[in-house]
Amino acid sequence: KRRIGVMTSGGDAPGMNGCVRAVVRMSIARGCEAYGIYEGYEGLVQGGKLIKQMKWSDVRGWLSEGGTLIGTARCAAFRERPGRLQAAKNLIVHGIDALVICGGDGSLTGADILRDEWQGLLKELVSNKELNQDQVEPFKHLNIVGMVGSIDNDMSLTDATIGCYSSLSRICEMVDVIDSTASSHQRAFVIEVMGRHCGWLALMAGVSTGADFVFMPEKPPSENWEAQMCSLVSKHRKLGKRKTIVIIAEGAQDRSLNKIPPTKVKDLLSNELGLDTRITTLGHVQRGGSPCAYDRQLSTLQGVEAVQAVLDATPETPTPVISVIENKIVRKGLIEAVKATHEVTNAIKAKNFDRAMLLRDAEFVE
Ligand code: ADP
């Protein structure tokens, strides 16, 4: 009977519980046992009570729960080989030879490193006399399957990461709330949204709420953006608009890669245009709470596919990541996806903004 471990790692995202639920139930449906690994890589390194078998009913009601009920953590120990040696031992002690991980590119990279080192780690466990040859014999290969959980939608080779549409919905809801008070007093609001190095949340929130101006890392504004923004906002006001909404990504920067702080935008709107301007940092309301219907669906379909990918894997199969492309659930190479993601960040660092937008599939923005 195969034993499949499931864990969530990195930043939490709505829909992660849906992944765990789907992996647990699909594993059981396919005659395997499922194990929950609690607190991300911390659970793998510490083992003991942090690795628990999960039954069908253990994940009842999880689809609509926000965050991750099996916990997540940043784990420094797993970044070093001794931590991964401990992780390998804990997996073998629990009889687990396949891991499904829902996390960001850091977490997925870490998992693939573990898989790469697997044979070496087993040899070391035997030569250290931590385990004997008979114990490691059945665990020749470790199967890893990745699923991308992130509110930022910052992973390449997938159209949507699990959690990004829940976060986008929450942002839109919050901007609508602010809209009503802004209109009443004819105020301007500079709204900072999350996304780390990715502008997807900011851009899509701008499109979805009809914001006046959007700042995002991949496409910094023109050199004279101060004048450009002010003239656009005053044009909108002259057309009768009673409110101004500027959305700024947390990673927003200018063409010289200097951070654009929300205070700078606020000062411009106040001092140049005389608008009563406030800053709202949406913060963690963007992260928590119940997943939207799309994230429930995506996490379930991807969880099912992840277990299927575990069962299909041969020792030669490169580690897959489960993606969604043009509405189809597909498998992509994990390493390729991580590499393509880094290419976007590199393009931004090299100030090759057109390429960054192209790689983000957002070249439609002018
Ligand atoms: P995310 O998965 O959201 O990108 P992080 O980059 O913080 O988040 O990674 C989460 C955890 O994954 C880290 O705390 C660490 O335990 C593990 N991890 C990340 N990168 C690596 C790596 N290069 N090697 C080993 N483990 C890693």
From TrEMBL:
Binding site for Mg(2+): 105
Active site residues per record: 152 (proton acceptor)
Region spans: N-terminal catalytic PFK domain 1: 1-366
Binding site for ATP: 11, 74-75, 104-107
Record-annotated Phosphofructokinase domain positions: 3-310
Binding residues for substrate: 150-152, 187, 194-196, 250, 278, 284-287
Compartment(s) where it occurs, according to its Swiss-Prot or TrEMBL record: Cytoplasm
Family statement: Belongs to the phosphofructokinase type A (PFKA) family. ATP-dependent PFK group I subfamily. Eukaryotic two domain clade "E" sub-subfamily.
Biological role: Catalyzes the phosphorylation of D-fructose 6-phosphate to fructose 1,6-bisphosphate by ATP, the first committing step of glycolysis.
Subunit structure: Homotetramer.
Protein name, entry field: ATP-dependent 6-phosphofructokinase
Organism: Heterodermia speciosa
